[in-house]
Design brief:
alpha+beta; three-stranded antiparallel β-sheet
Length: 195
Amino acid sequence: MILQISSGQGPAECELGVALLFEALKKEYPDLERLSDHPAKDRGCYTSILCSTECDLSELEGSVQWICQSPFRPNHKRKNWFIDISVIPEVERICTDQEIKFESFHSHGKGGQNVNKVETGVRLIHIPTGITVTSTSGRSQYRNKKDALSKLNAILASQMSAAKQQQKKDAWREHTKIERGNPVRVYEGRRFVRK
């Protein structure tokens, strides 16, 4: 499961809260792994942290409230800061090796008797996605297989890239939306203790 911890459009206190919340969740869920982060201008603060875990943390999706006097502005009246936790859809993994079905067939056209007598045409089927690629341009099965593999890898790479772009868009959309009120968790003080 991929989670994004975000300060939304919040001030430096929310950005510090992102770092503190990540550390608190890391203690609670030791397998939580940081995938990427966006540091804020203040040291030790983040506008967002993208992380993954094997645990199902979907019940944490929503806003987290941190009740604390501002560590940056001691005379500031506000004491409630909000951090967002969003579940980000995972990029579907595409297998690029073991799951390819190989078929050969007779090619037609130029190439002499070898092309007409020997099965030089190649068809590759990527089993998980159903993508089929053929190649008949070469005079040997080896060349056609190499060409078909190259085409298949290009298609799979393109799909993977599109899926990653969509994941980034989903993460950004979640980063810009944060709901205050009705928090899923509340933490208090500089020590970030769960209430």
